[in-house]
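re: ur msg from earlier - yeah i can do the pantoate complex, just paste it... oh wait u already did. ok heres what im feeding in:
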Amino acid sequence: MKTFTEPKKLQKWCAAKRMEGRKIALVPTMGYLHEGHLSLIEAARKKGADEIVVSVFVNPVQFGPNEDYDKYPRDEKADLAKCRKAGATAIFFPTPQNMYLDAHSVYVNEETLSAGLCGARRPGHFRGVCTVVAKLFNLAHPHFAVFGQKDFQQETIIRRMVRDLNFDLEIVVAPIVREPSGLARSSRNTYLSADEKSRARALSQSLFAAQADVKAKKTVPWKAYQAKIVKKLEAAGLKVDYVEAVDGETLEPVKRLEKGVAILLAVYCGKTRLIDNAVM
Ligand code: PAF
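and the outut:
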């Protein structure tokens, strides 16, 4: 497995592989890899990638001033071993200095889908995500890039960015990987105590219950149902940031829960902000 820290070197290597006719997959991550990330590498492998490039970069530009950039978990050595074992062929560990040169002044801003949900609560977050992902696309020029469904709004925004800026690649979305308790895998789960982890089960339980209700009743009025989910989350000791039902493509709020609608949740479990979602 090749290791790169210099953006230019990665770019050169990927360009050479492309010239040889190799199919390149990019798996962008912020590291501290868990089974969710490994499932993205597996999805790339299954889709027939010859080269799987995993980027590991805690992107400062997508964190707000009071967020967890400094304390975000990092373990390069473990990430290297996990990537090698999972079959990645290259790993990219840039530094903030070589990704954002002095006086960096160009950013990518998606203006519609980023307005609500996490975008409204984390100003500048998706501008940081789009900027770094666009840079990674330009460096690796992959045939496809794999993202997890856990970050539903992020994945929707990235697909829009690819469409609107004519990036020449395909976006592949891999399903959420959950812990046996139902909790969606996330590097931030490491912040949770055993008690918090147990309380956080209410997220996936609410989503699974909604899926079952939609299956049984076909369509359900959202407002009353939303209040029911909020009550359940609060009863588990979680502080609700938002609970929304949206159209899976436009992220527009919907009035009824029905097949194809996505429920997106964000809560604070102690000091840790957790997100989850499910498509009905
Ligand atoms: O989902 C993430 O881990 C990050 O937002 C991403 C896509 C790697 C960009 O930094």
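cool cool. Residues 28-30, 59, 62, 129, 132-133, 151, 154 surround pantoate (CB under 6 Å). ping me if u need the other ligands too
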